[in-house]
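DATA SHEET
Item: assembly model
Revision: 1
Owner: S.N.
Input lines:
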Amino acid sequence: MQLPTHLILGIFLQELLSGLIPNTILRVLLIIIICFISHFFVDAFAILTYHPPERENTKVWEYWHIFIYVSGIIIFILFFNPYWLGMLSAYIPDLWDWFFLRPLSKRKNKPELYDKYGIHFIADAIRRPLIRLGVPNLIYNEYGILPELIFISLVIIVKISTINLSL
Ligand SMILES: [Zn+2]
């Protein structure tokens, strides 16, 4: 799944753990670890959404990715205080693999760097039994944007409406 979905899960998990664990150091540690792990489960379930691994030359792909990054930035700003830690921890695997390791291995012309240090194989390992269990695979189906689009929009709308109420 995509940036906003990872951020939203980071927010929910941080909120949940903050309510459960009074000890600050333990709470911070668990927020980092559990939000980080959540990334791989979210990615494994991405088969339920439109998520082609490579760029597609369609308008849907283009507008969908503009929506993803704009809504991701809106969510990050709206929820930054106090949820930056949960959001960041939930997004670290993409920062590491797609924004650091891949460009680095391309620049150095060493594709084996990704094979050696990439961490998305964990999501692949969780995804395989899901596919075997018959979970529908919508990765190339453009209608797969609908559930994720509704979910992301609802979170943003609810947050903005509560901001207005508290003014
Ligand atoms: Zn990912």
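QC remark: Residues 80-107 form the longest helix (28 residues).
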